[in-house]
Specification:
It is a single chain. This protein is of the alpha/beta class. The protein has 2 domains: 33-152, Sandwich (Immunoglobulin-like); 161-373, 3-Layer(aba) Sandwich (Rossmann fold). Helices cover 35% and strands 23% of the residues. The chain has helices spanning 3-29, 71-82, 178-187, 199-208, 229-238, 255-258, 263-277, 293-303, 322-334, 346-354, 363-373, and strands spanning 36-46, 49-58, 91-96, 99-104, 110-115, 127-136, 146-152, 161-164, 218-225, 246-249, 283-288, 308-314, 339-342. The N and C termini lie far apart (45 Å).
């Protein structure tokens, strides 16, 4: 992104945040604040350290729906996601592993906990529940504000982890075409957004790994803003992808953009965080060719020799990138890391089976899902 565009976007974001803060101050003064809610984001950690994030907001009135809504309703919900009234400075209490810890949300309403358990848990389970409660502020007519966060701890027998992009990797977004992307993002719900054929079956095969191993953790990393968390999380649930933490981007924090930090650099930092947190765990990296995933994954493979088992890149229609990706594939090959550029899910699944990453018995189901999802509609 060019410098002046980055500066303009960051300045607009900051102006919007200040306007919302001033509006919220007036609402508190006139006692017109809507009910407050704690929004939780799936966390992750180890037996020694747990990370959990969330946000304190006025209730935006967005609920999960059993059926797809109209384009206008989806557009309204999207507006509400970005026109959120965050509760800066809110105090939140969390209970985990026999501890009660309080933290203060930042100006954008985001809060983060880092727990260090006092004693090891002898009974392993992959997901841990973390009760949360709002300490302050509270609206006069609202009772206790509570929520339950979840944190993932990879199994001791996990053979590897999976780090996957979201847009144009598991879900059709059209990031290389601005008008297509805007139409999909603004007018579609979790029910009407379309996954790529066979990807959910492939990810379940990766999660299960080879017989006797796993489950292997899956992390979804994207430059999408946290405002879209509920939409993406619902998409993953509806289309039966394996549950996993989503590491998104806080667009409301304009300081990084103002300082000249690019979105690919921010994404790289989140990937490196996972490599550092799990030093004994190798990873499979999955992305698409439309943006900078191949470059990011090459940098990761260089920084963590021997830790990347494979790189799978979904080919999107961007001919200008062909030469660059071929060069990246050669760089990775020199590091002993295979990069597969594929238009569908079958080739990466077959490679994973041949490499001992997934059970070959899962291939027929993956091929069937791809064939079923790509059949032309009946007359």
């Amino acid at each position: 992104m060019r410098g002046w565009r980055r500066l303009l976007i960051a300045s607009l974001v900051e102006l919007g945040r200040r306007a919302r803060a001033n509006r919220l101050g007036l609402k508190w003064y006139f006692d017109r604040v809507d009910p407050i809610q704690i929004v939780t984001y799936r966390g992750y950690g180890t037996p020694e350290l747990m990370h959990l994030r969330g946000r304190v907001l006025e209730d935006r009135g967005i609920t999960r729906r059993a059926v797809a809504g109209s384009g206008w309703r989806n557009l309204r919900d999207m507006y509400r996601r970005f026109e959120s009234d965050e509760i800066g400075g809110a105090r939140v209490r969390a209970s985990f592993a026999g501890q009660q810890v309080e933290t203060v949300a930042d100006n954008d309403g985001y809060f983060a906990f880092r727990f260090v358990p006092q004693a090891s848990d002898p009974a392993y389970r992959d997901w841990y529940n973390v009760p949360l409660e709002l300490v302050a502020p509270k609206t006069p007519d609202q009772g206790p504000v509570r929520a339950t966060g979840q944190g993932l701890v990879p199994a001791p027998q996990a053979a590897f982890g999976v780090i996957s992009d979201i847009d144009d990797t598991i879900i059709r977004t059209g990031v290389t075409d601005l008008l297509t992307m805007m139409r999909i993002v603004l007018l579609n719900s979790a029910q009407t957004r379309v996954p790529f054929p066979g990807v959910a079956a492939f990810y379940h095969a990766l999660r299960n790994g080879m017989p006797g191993a796993g489950p292997n953790p899956i992390f979804y990393v994207s430059n999408s803003p946290w405002n879209l968390y509920d939409l993406l999380d619902e998409f993953i649930e509806i289309h039966r992808f394996p549950a996993g933490p989503l590491l998104l981007q806080a667009w409301g924090r304009s300081r990084a953009l103002l300082a000249g930090t690019s979105l690919p650099k921010l994404k790289l930092d989140r990937v490196r965080l996972l490599f550092d947190l799990y030093p004994d765990l190798p990873f499979i990296l999955i992305g698409d060719s439309g943006e900078r995933d191949p470059e990011i994954y090459r940098d990761v493979a260089r920084a963590y020799p021997g830790r990347v088992r494979a790189v799978y890149i979904r080919h999107v229609h961007n001919r200008a990138r062909a030469g660059a990706i071929a060069a990246i594939a050669a760089d990775l090959q020199a590091l002993g890391v295979p990069l597969l550029l594929a238009r569908n899910t079958v080739l990466p699944a077959e490679h994973a089976a041949e490499s001992g990453l997934i059970d070959p018995a899962t291939l027929p189901a993956i091929r069937a899902d791809v064939a079923r999802d790509t059949r032309p509609p009946p007359d």
